[in-house]
Amino acid sequence: MIRRMATNPNQSPMSRFPAGFLWGVATSAHQIEGAAGERAPSVWDAFTAEPGRVKDGSTAEVACDHYHRYREDVALIADLGVDAYRFSISWPRVDSPGGLDFYDRLVDELCAAGVRPVPTLFHWDLPVALDWLERDTAERFAQYVSVVAERLGDRVTKWITLNEPAEHTLLGHALGAHAPGRTLMFDALPVAHHQLLAHGLAVRALRAAGADDIGIANSHSPTWPASGKQEDRDAAEFYDVLLNRLFCDPLLLGRYPEGIGELMPGDVDADLAVISEPLDWYGINYYAPAEVGAPQGTETEYGGLTFPAELPFSVREIEGRPVTDFGWPVVPEGLTELLTDLRTRYGDRLPPLVITENGCSYEGLDDQERIAYLDGHIGALLRAVEAGVDVRGYFVWSLLDNFEWAEGYARRFGLVHVDYTTLKRTPKASYAWLRDQLRTARGRRSPADAG
Ligand code: FCB
Q1: Protein residue with its CA nearest to atom 9 in ligand 1
Q2: Probe ligand 1: pick from 164, 397, 399, max atoms within 8 Å of CB?
Q3: Which of 436, 303, 417 is nearest to 367 (CA)?
Q4: Residue 265 CB coordination number (10 Å)
Q5: In 330-428, which residue ranges form alpha helices assigned H by DSSP?
Q6: Residue 17: what pLDDT?
Q7: How far is the CA of 284 from the centre of ligand 1 (A)?
């Protein structure tokens, strides 16, 4: 039995966003498509096949079987009433015979349903033969992007180059928690540089194909020092550079934070000119802030990750907050802080922003906690907009429960429940809540717009 909604749609903050604000839902190819046998393998297939890498021992071979059920999923998106759908294009699938046809069909289906397609061109599923330690991967990425843009560019107008290069570098190449499972620690920095270069080359390739609405999806967390002590503040600043500025500074300012550029491979200055190609907008994935202090001399666990003792910081629990099933603290005002701080830090260099991911993992169909999380974060976003930050869109992570990387199927981020035995989709209470909020917001906004 679904309980009454926790919040009143008549008080929806959504009606107070500017007209034209883009509401959407997000997914990624590897996490939902399945049909792994119908495409070339990615680094995630290889990683998952190694025993012990994925906590519940599962694979994404079938996942939500979206590849075969995309019509049903597009109908769910259309019924929800969002404006846009952020999905990702699997490079290994595009490299496989007929692979691009799938995205062609998906884009047609979305357009026919009145939903704007917003593809991400890389969401971590690198073809298994490629390696971000190699500079050549950046050039290969731009070639693949040109092929996709040529095929879909008549219907797709809004593009995202990369998803969270910070996590892909840190989790995949420094700590080994994600594919390809390397533990290079700071020797993983070239992976960051090559992804940034790939992004810049992709922006050029997309513009050459006529695109003029291009962004990237970067993760950001406000970083809070564990105490006022100098050692905690230094550790927090180090973490802030690694997570928040290592990618943002080169993109927006055309330079690396102090001391980092020297560690990068190749002709870094020439590359920075490519990396800082002006963006039409900047995408932010926000889940929670991070409390960071001085190293504690031992391995530490946080949010499902193990941080080695030799790191110059330690990530701490934020006390006194509710946590999601993932153990991430629920801190909506962290989003307001993040957005206003970005505007302060980057000033006129900050393009319009889009929240490309925000969401939470909770069990159950009657997911009142997810409703409270989304309601709180949309309210926090509104406060940033009202404070003058130019934000143009918000995407909920995620449409469906899906394969949550190294956590397997144990984390449920969806507005729609997926039964992994039958693959049946069941909208949760949060889906109904969001649909009502959107309807109410539109109903309220239109007369004002007209008048
Ligand atoms: C983000 C990823 C996305 C999903 C969410 C929960 O870091 O971009 O694929 O796993 O976290």
Answers
A1: 28
A2: 397
A3: 417
A4: 14
A5: 333-346, 368-386
A6: 96
A7: 12
Residues pairing with 357 in the sheet: 285
Ligand 1 centre to CA of 113 (Å) is 26
Any residues with Cβ below 6 Å from ligand 1, and which?
28, 163-164, 167, 219, 285, 357, 397, 404-405, 413
Distance CA 242, CA 146 (A): 30
Alpha-carbon distances, residue 254 vs 152, 159, 322 (angstroms): 30, 21, 38
Q: Any idea which residues carry the catalytic annotation?
A: 164, 357
Nearest CA to ligand 1 atom 5: 397
Whole-number pLDDT of residue 383: 98
Give the distance (Å) from ligand 1 centre to CA of residue 167. 9
Architecture of domain 9-450: Alpha-Beta Barrel (3.20)
Nearest CA owner, ligand 1 atom 4: 404
**What separation in Å is there between the alpha carbon of 300 and the centre of ligand 1?**
21
Which residue owns the Cα nearest ligand 1 atom 10? 404
Q: Angle between the 189-208 and 268-275 helix axes, to the nearest 10 degrees?
A: 50
User: What stretches in the chain show pLDDT beneath 70?
Assistant: 1-11, 445-451
pTM of the model: 0.96
Distance CA 26, CA 116 (A): 12
pLDDT of residue 4: 43
pLDDT in tens, 339-396: 999 999 999 999 999 999 999 999 999 999 999 999 999 999 999 999 999 999 999 9
Pocket probe mutation, ligand 1, options 25, 54, 164, max atoms within 8 Å of Cβ = 164
Within 185-331, residue ranges assigned H as helices are 189-208, 230-240, 246-253, 268-275
Q: What is the biggest distance separating any 2 CA atoms in the chain, rounded to whole angstroms?
A: 63
Rounded Cα gap, residues 449 and 451, in angstroms: 5
What are the pLDDT digits (tens) for 87-117?
999 999 999 999 999 999 999 999 999 999 9
pLDDT at 1 (0 to 100): 37
